[in-house]
Amino acid sequence: MKESLLFYSTNLQADPVTFSQALIKGIAPDKGLYMPKQIPTFTQAEIDAFASMSYAEIAFEVIKKFLIGEIPDEDLKPLIEDAYNYDVPLENVFDNKYILRLDQGPTASFKDFAARMMGRLMNYYLSKQGKNIIILTATSGDTGSAVANAFYGLENIKVVVLFPENEVTPRQRKQMTTLGKNVKIIALEGKFDDCQAMVKEAFADTDCDFLNLSSANSINIGRLVPQIVY
């Protein structure tokens, strides 16, 4: 297998890490964001070939360049096919204007696209390492339902979502609270900022270290790489 692509912290005070390390950590020890040291490139021929591919096939070609040396292609492909097991139509509006339908996932939110891939990548690495984590996140609606659905049923991950009781739609609430299994949803009296403050406090509290907390919000490279696809 080829040498892994390394990811550095934007605060430049932490050692570079592999994709799997950046994914599980979420944020660097120096509070910076993980970014690839080299941005993978595509030839014009590779880009032209996307025109005849499905969304899952394009996702495989893009994501594997960031995960070089990390996951064998034969392991990565089924993860991607499972994450994008629904149609993603490209609809013509007029002339050469098109709309990519990012509302076709299980919660009808574009956040399904990154969350589903992130969940499967996390579960893959955790299974290999024999470890478990708890995803703790706050939401005002879309993120919570997308993350809850994306991580639902994954063996090595538990999910806890905090949401402001009176600030989500009935549909968003049902998308989160009707799942069960490894997903725990907690409604709080207050605003989204109150939920977010509790999440940040938990991550900063060393007494919570034994819980192996991680985040699924959009600062994690595990959400950013899948978003590059669309």
| Number of separate strands | 8
Order of helices and strands: EHEHHHEEHEHEHEHEH
Order the strands across the largest sheet as they lie in space. 7-6-5-8
What is the rounded distance between the termini? 27 Å
What class, by secondary structure content? alpha/beta
User: Would you identify the CATH architecture?
Assistant: 3-Layer(aba) Sandwich
Average pLDDT level: 90
| Helicity range | 40-55%
Tally of discrete structural domains: 1
CATH topology: Rossmann fold
CATH class: Alpha Beta
Tally the helices.
Answer: 9
The major beta sheet can be summarized as:
4 strands, parallel
* Radius of gyration using CA atoms only: 18 Å
Per the principal axes of the C-alpha atoms, what is the gross shape?
Answer: globular
Strand content bin: 15-25%
Descriptors:
single chain, two-stranded antiparallel ribbon, Rossmann fold, 230 residues, 4-stranded parallel sheet, alpha/beta
Describe the structure.
The protein has 230 residues and is of the alpha/beta class. The chain has a single domain (7-229), classed as Rossmann fold, CATH 3.40.50. Helices cover 41% and strands 16% of the residues. It is built from nine helices and eight strands. The chain has helices spanning 19-25, 44-49, 55-66, 73-83, 111-129, 142-151, 170-177, 192-204, 221-229, and strands at 7-9, 34-36, 90-94, 97-100, 133-138, 157-164, 183-188, 213-214. The strands form three sheets. It has a four-stranded parallel sheet, with helices on both faces. It has a two-stranded antiparallel sheet with strand order 1-2. The longest helix is centred in the middle third of the chain and has 19 residues, at 111-129. The model has no long low-confidence stretch (mean pLDDT 90).
